[in-house]
Amino acid sequence: MAPYGQAALSQQIGPDRFNADWKNPQHRARRLVSEFIGTAGLTFVLSGGAAILALYAGAPVHPFQAAFILSAVSALWLVAAVYFLGDISAHFNPAMTFAFTLRGDMGWPMCATYVVVQLIAGVAGSMLARGFFGIEGNLAATQPPPGLALHAAAFEAVLTFGMVLMVLSMANGPKLNGQFIPIAVGAYVMSLGTMGGPFQGAAMNPARAFGPDVARGDLSTWWVYVVGPLSGALIAVLVARFLRGPAKAQEAQAAMGTPLGRE
């Protein structure tokens, strides 16, 4: 059976170079710092944006208007962040990291490290916003409607499925900052965030939900935004494999970034 994902990349470039470059502690540290910046930036602009709307909008903001504005803010941040960090690492989402790992693009120990860093970053971004504005606007916390937690989890699964499938289908080059990938990610986040935001927040990202929840001190519904996105990511990986076959070497490189000094 032909290797796929990370194993295919190792075979393509040779184990010595793979171990020297992709397993180099410096490259791994760069990836984690990149993930921290991107994820913390996401929760900061969302939590800060929600607080500023509550404090300075001049009038109560309709939930759909708030969802549109916050979706646009987060989409624009993701477009910018994927453009300038994509060649290092631009998952910014535990569900996306989980999908790349399931596909074979990276190992489980690195996956666990990514998720820990993403969750810490999510908290850091929201806490920074809280330091400026308090917990106004609920810091853009995602919450299911009363009595509809399971519906909200299923909704999260659907939204995350589409996002992960799109990224897995497009991230097939040596970098995750190709010409159209950041724009596609931003468009998806804005469209689905605007549509789903008034219902239950439309997180599509456990770290994005975790940050505001910790900052405001309420993790009672966070499970919705873990179970839903991870379930959607799992289904997306299965569908992507059916549509496109196993991950190739260049797809693994897109997920793992490009080490310093390598083209």
Automatic annotation (TrEMBL):
Record-given protein name: Aquaporin
Membrane protein topology class: Multi-pass membrane protein
UniProt KW Transcription regulation keyword: no
UniProt keyword list: Membrane, Transmembrane, Transmembrane helix, Transport
Major subcellular site: membrane
Family stated for the protein in its record: Belongs to the MIP/aquaporin (TC 1.A.8) family.
Lineage: Bacteria, Pseudomonadati, Pseudomonadota, Alphaproteobacteria, Acetobacterales
Gene3D superfamilies: Glycerol uptake facilitator protein (1.20.1080.10)
Membrane-spanning ranges: 36-58, 64-85, 106-128, 148-168, 180-202, 222-243
Compartments, record wording: Membrane
PROSITE patterns: MIP
